[in-house]
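Hi everyone, sorry if this is the wrong subforum. Our group has a chain we'd like a structural model of before ordering constructs, and none of us has done structure prediction before. Sequence below.
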Amino acid sequence: SEQRDQYLRGMVQQLKPDIEYELNHWKTTGNHRRVLLVVNSYDDVDTVRSVFQNDRGWTGRYKSLSREVSSNEDQYSRLLVESFYQDRAEVLIVPLLSVGRGYNILDEHGEALFGSVFFLVRPYPTPNDLNYLVQILHAYLPEYSRRVQGQDLFYDKAVNKLRQISSAKLESMYLKPDFWSILSSKEREIMGWYTFVPVWQMIGRLLRGGKDARAYFCDSKFNAKPAGNSEGYSMLEAWAAIMRKNKKDALFQSLYGPFSEAINKLNMGGNI
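Answer:
Right subforum, don't worry. Here is the predicted structure as tokens:
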């Protein structure tokens, strides 16, 4: 919506000094690492891009990712993103799912090019992304199956009940873009996994070569509790709960240990 885009533009405008701070931080280390600005879609990329287009101080210093090769000077093709170190731009604006798993965005020494990442928008499936919503339904299947078994339903009655529950959930997710508030605690844990994984994969782009990374969660919705439920988890709290639940799992810790340690030190008492 236009109001959402306006909020996003306003936030990015206010974040410009923080982005400069991050760039200067890496320069002081003698390692000119760069900054990623992460949003949810290419439409969001264009919204953020417009904030920098009107600022002469940022001319030539930023690029926005495009699906294909573009003639616009401030756009950079996703097809060429692993060669971004050759560009003089210091900031790259990308959708979350565009350069996560499978991409190595390195510097000339084979180490992580980006040092800081700003997650500008809380990750969430769009209402019309049926592929994503069906994947979420698959994750709900064990819970829904237990619910059906608990009602002593069998054969066609069990299948019909399972179909009814699944269809109702799919419809509610499709019609309500921000459906975090209507999820149960168990469902928020499932959704937490689906939102955490791409975020961690994006952070992983910054860890190549054993490098450190600085991550910022800028959207206040990251720490927003479900409407009308002060006891419910925000998305950040859901991630922290998943980390705590698996803290004794050696394999889990080998994959997500750094994030687990960091998020459970995060003060989530106020706005992010």
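For your construct planning: Residues 34 and 114 are 4 Å apart (CA to CA). The chain has seven helices and six strands.
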